[in-house]
Specification:
Blueprint (H helix, E strand, L loop, with lengths): L9 H10 L25 E4 L12 H9 L4 E8 L5 E3 L21 E6 L2 E6 L7 E2 H9 L6 E6 L2 H7 L8 H11 L9 H5 L4 E3 L2 H8 L6 E5 L13 H4 L2 H7 L5 E4 L1 H4 L2 E2 L2 E2 L5 H7 L3 E2 L2 E3 L14 H12 L3 E4 L2 H11 L7 H17 L3
Parallel strand pairs: 1-2, 1-15, 2-7, 8-9, 9-10, 10-13, 14-15
Antiparallel strand pairs: 2-3, 3-6, 4-5, 11-12
Bound molecules: 2-acetamido-2-deoxy-beta-D-glucopyranose (5 copies).
Length: about 375
């Protein structure tokens, strides 16, 4: 690798590496190290929402590796399935917004309209055009120089189970859990096995979580959307699924909830209103609360925070007392937490190994 190559912008090079050169990542983990620094459990979890997605294209290898470098406790992803049954990391139900599909005229005949959560949606649906697979995502976490958890969402299970058929009548949920088991994920929250390979399984669909609770005892998080949006599978309202009786019911299956943050603390005219009692009621049921999504951009920061993302983190961690944060800017959250509740210094030698690996990826890439 020439010296000048090292300075090619990472964003460009790694994005190409991630999309074109598949498979690009050795599986299973080759760099596992039993002496890795453990997961921190003394402060709210830093959950890298779609990787370091404020800096690099979401859900790409580059975004995940950057998030690890910046101090993520968990790397977060959405899992969908391609038509041929491969689990992939991808958020949207169409390829339009986050890929260059429109430039590939050979795929024009794959444009479809499907009903997705009650709305007819037209676009290119995942065919063979995958980004990174669930397995590649897992291997990025397992290869990290310290213990890094994963936080995969089983996305749109109703749609996927309608459109994708696996052999032996297997469902999306079965394939999802099989993949986790294949790579050694097991055990209750905070068990030795779990701490070795931490994971939270998340879903907006209670039926999927309840089904998967029969397949694995790994901790699960019920995601909760905006107050106006019913659950995608059971058509229950926000008020139903945040009632005390529902929390009582669901606590048997999940370890916590992942609510949209504006529903925990409602907002009017871009100012915060009085916080709801959702966090205290969840905590009373021994449920963790991991709200989403924290973002540095001015357009997402409420006026109360004076364009200061640290002020927002301080409010949510000190006043609202949440247990984890989905953030697009893992690096900012990490720096904030290091200021207010520092961990012992990062092992620089391990950190430099990761940088070396990124350099290797570049030199093995298609540039
Ligand atoms: C694509 O982006 C537009 C504009 O942000 C948004 O309205 C639309 O919902 C996105 N489509 C998908 C499938 O996410
Ligand atoms: C979606 O389109 C199909 C076919 O045109 C139609 O039968 C169905 O009612 C539409 N669904 C919605 C929710 O508009
Ligand atoms: C869980 O497994 C038991 C025993 O096989 C079965 O009776 C039950 O219906 C299953 N529950 C769900 C939600 O699939
Ligand atoms: C969902 O629930 C609402 C409110 O109870 C009801 O009006 C609507 O018809 C239901 N939709 C479906 C698809 O069941
Ligand atoms: C830092 O990591 C290196 C390489 O993994 C290891 O040899 C060294 O013992 C670690 N140092 C500390 C203080 O943990």
């Amino acid at each position: 690798m020439s010296a000048s190559l090292r300075f090619v912008p990472l964003i460009f090079v790694l994005f190409i590496g991630g999309c074109v050169g598949r498979p690009f990542y050795p599986l299973p983990s080759k760099m596992a190290d039993s002496n890795r620094r453990p997961l921190q459990t003394s402060r709210p979890y830093n959950i890298a929402h779609r990787g370091s997605s404020g800096e690099l294209p979401e859900e790409t290898a580059a975004a995940y590796m950057r998030a690890i470098e910046e101090g993520a406790d968990f790397i977060e992803t959405d899992i969908l399935a391609s038509k041929d049954g491969v689990l992939i990391c991808f958020h949207d139900v169409t390829l339009d917004n986050t890929t260059d599909i429109s430039e590939h005229k050979q795929f024009a005949n794959r444009k479809r309209t499907y009903e997705v959560r009650g709305v007819n949606t037209t676009g290119w649906f995942p065919g063979k055009f995958s980004i990174i697979s669930f397995e590649e995502f897992i291997s990025i976490a397992l290869d990290a120089p310290r213990v890094v958890g994963i936080y995969p969402e089983i996305k749109n299970p109703v749609l996927i189970n309608q459109r994708v058929k696996w052999s032996n009548g297997k469902k999306f949920e079965d394939k999802f859990v099989e993949t986790l088991v294949k790579y050694g994920y097991k055990g209750l929250y905070m068990s030795k096995d779990w701490l070795n390979q931490p994971v939270f399984i998340q879903s907006f669909a209670p039926t999927s979580l309840i089904y998967m609770s029969n397949l694995t005892d790994l901790p699960k998080i019920l995601l909760i959307d905006d107050v106006t949006i019913p659950t995608e599978d059971t058509n229950q309202s926000y008020w139903e699924i945040t009632s005390d009786s529902y929390l009582e019911f669901i606590m048997e299956y999940v370890i916590g909830i992942g609510p949209c943050k504006d529903t925990v603390v409602p907002v009017a005219d871009n100012y915060l209103l009085t916080p709801t009692d959702l966090v205290s009621r969840a905590h009373a049921h021994d449920l963790q609360v991991h709200p989403y999504t924290y973002r540095n951009e001015n357009s997402f920061l409420h006026f109360d925070f004076h364009q200061d993302p640290y002020a927002e983190y301080d409010y949510w961690i000190s006043k609202i007392a949440i247990d984890g944060l989905f953030t697009d800017f893992t690096g900012s959250l990490h720096k904030f937490q290091e200021c207010i509740s520092p961990l012992s210094p990062v092992n620089e030698s391990s950190a430099s190994k990761l940088l070396h690996k990124i350099a290797l990826l570049i030199s093995n890439g298609k540039v």
